[in-house]
Amino acid sequence: MGLVWTIVELIIIVALIVALGLAAAIVLETLRRRYNHSHVEAPPIFEDPKSLKPVPCPHIFDPAEKYISLIVPAFNEEHRLPGALNETMNYLQQRAAKDKSFSYEVVIIDDGSADGTKRVAFDFVRKYTVDNVRVILLGRNHGKGEAIRKGMLHSRGELLIMLDADGATKVNDLEKLENQIHAVVEEEHRFGNSAANDLTLRISDVPIAAFGSRAHLEEKALATRKWYRNFLMKGFHVVVLLAAGPGIRDTQCGFKMFTRAAARKLFTNIRLKRWCFDVELVYLCKYFHIPMIELSVNWSEIPGSKVNPLSIPNMLWELALMSLGYRTGIWKIYT
């Protein structure tokens, strides 16, 4: 009888090993098929709501036509979007009035909203023309990471900045990131960096990333938040450190600027579509040796956040996918 049970146990162990192996194989194949792609897509078409004529959409590999592009992902933002866009357009128009060489565009990506976000966005296109405000419709909800990727790939700026639709960060803080990028280019030029040293190159040709940060607000936040939220935040920071390494204290701030050269490398490779694409950006910056700057920005809590405690498992899952995808070589990085 003892021999029979030993054989049964061995059969169960072998079956478990086979099942685990099959499960791992399925996960790896899913990673390969779903995420390992080169993002070769037909470009979307912008529609001019006044003439109803299609406007051909540029690609990140095209030369820059504007100085700066502002990328605004929006999912069910009918109520928060108007205030943020009004503030943004007022700032851009005032700056353009003072500096005739300053050109801009705002690209709103409607991430499958079920409310009036699309209507609000097209109202701004009608008001400011399709040359200055453009809307990309994703049709269904893909996630913030995918919305930003799409906006970045089809923008015209030398500099490209992503900012949230809620207006939590003041738009004029982009000058902090912008000025620091210019300073890095000048410094590299002074010390003979081969890319920055070519006087024929524009700022768009030097890969640099500047990340807005709320890390300076962390002490105050720790004192006012519930203990379990602080515990989850600290735990998430540890996981991020393991997945992407040190260098950026606040990976999740939705206020980041890239030169066109940096965006070209990063957003043709990024795969995570929702919660942790910011962490993947840090990982890819390190892979491509793109200088990363972290700067404090003004930030305020705006009611209506899409992030909640249930988001934590999804974030951890995405970080696990990213680590597995890159460390096993299943996720190819295109250069």
Output the keywords:
Spore Coat Polysaccharide Biosynthesis Protein SpsA, Chain A; glycosyltransferase; endoplasmic reticulum; 335 residues; two-stranded antiparallel ribbon; 10 helices; Nucleotide-diphossugar_trans; 45% helix; alpha/beta; transmembrane helix
What do these coordinates show?
Pfam families: Glycos_transf_2. InterPro entries: DPG_synthase, Glyco_trans_2-like, Nucleotide-diphossugar_trans. This protein has 10 helices and 9 strands. The protein has 335 residues and is an alpha/beta fold. It has a single domain, classed as Spore Coat Polysaccharide Biosynthesis Protein SpsA, Chain A, CATH 3.90.550. The strands form 2 sheets. It has a 7-stranded mixed β-sheet, with helices on both faces. α7 runs parallel beside α10.
Topology, pairings included?
Layout: H1 2-35, E1 45-47, E2 54-56, E3 66-74, H2 81-98, E4 104-110, H3 117-128, E5 133-137, H4 144-153, E6 157-162, H5 174-190, E7 209-213, H6 218-224, H7 227-244, E8 256-259, H8 260-267, H9 277-287, E9 292-296, H10 311-327
Parallel strand pairs: 3-4, 3-6, 4-5, 7-9
Antiparallel strand pairs: 1-2, 6-8, 7-8
Helix pairs in contact: 7-10
Pathway: Protein modification; protein glycosylation
GO cellular component, one term: endoplasmic reticulum membrane
InterPro entries: DPG_synthase (IPR035518), Glyco_trans_2-like (IPR001173), Nucleotide-diphossugar_trans (IPR029044)
